[in-house]
Sequence to fold (349 residues):
Amino acid sequence: MKQAFGNNINRFTDTVKDIKGKLFSKSNDYVECYEAEESEKVKKTEIVKIPPFINYVTFNRMGLTIKNLNNILDSEEDFELHIIDCNSKDNTWDYIQSLNDKRIKSKTRFTLNLGPIYPLNYSLTKRKPGQFFITVDSDTFIKTKNWIAKFMEVFDAFPEVGMLGVMRDKPYPRYLPPVIARENGAVNYLELRNATVGVDLDFVPGQLQCLRPELIEEIGYWSEENGYGDAELSPRIVHYTKYKVGYLTNVEIDMNQYIGCNQCLARDFCKLSKSVRTCFSLSKTANYNESFVRKHGWKYKETFKELEAGKRTAYCASVHDPESMKNHYYNQIWASENFDYYIRNSNPK
Fold:
């Protein structure tokens, strides 16, 4: 494992200077450690048996990660869990390596944090054909039991639904944009009515989302070119595919942002000097999502102008999938600028 970023400052300088060449070359690789629990190949006849793929990305805040990831693993439901650590500077990776559950299919550590979209799309390339894709933010605690079954119940009842999520919750205020209540017998969900481009919070937030495999074939990946995440995904689906998006009504979460050291389940792993910094102060210092939006947010609206003009389709390519970049429009300059912003700013030494 120990080719750590902090061991060689020149490596960081070289990476920034050579970012575009490394990202878009066939040999591009920021994986420091990758542990796969099983072969990723699957026969087509086995597709119907595949449990959903869960993507779980960590970046510091080990206390929350332990609480929330343990909660997922405490479930009796079947899934394939893939965990990525984005160059955390606490002992998150030590904790991840200690986990032992047959449903954990891979553990990956990146040498650098390249922002939230890079690991998300990396995981998408590992999804098997026909497999539902679930992404869970590390600050999301899922309170409802058998929550995966509740997602699948709605997908089964509503074939037009491509993506489902849940409302944000404490400490965030509960909020719903305009929605339409849909019912099919005893099953229901709230369909996002407008998904208006550029309107605050008129999208399904990404802290807990599940995507239908047929939708993924149509949209490809989250946009690396604008880097806007869940805010760009909902309008792209609603306005440029045949699918709908919406909210589950029977899955509850909380999104607590802080755990005191005296209550933290990470005490046995944590080697930080609490008087100097905690995992939460590390996370706050390295979180550049809001400043990224201020600097690069204009690309979001430009992307939808290009969609409206027919310059691009709903399919977004990814640097992790060279064939997708060959076959679909992809603005490498925008994407490399986005990755470069996080490399420069969000990798504390």
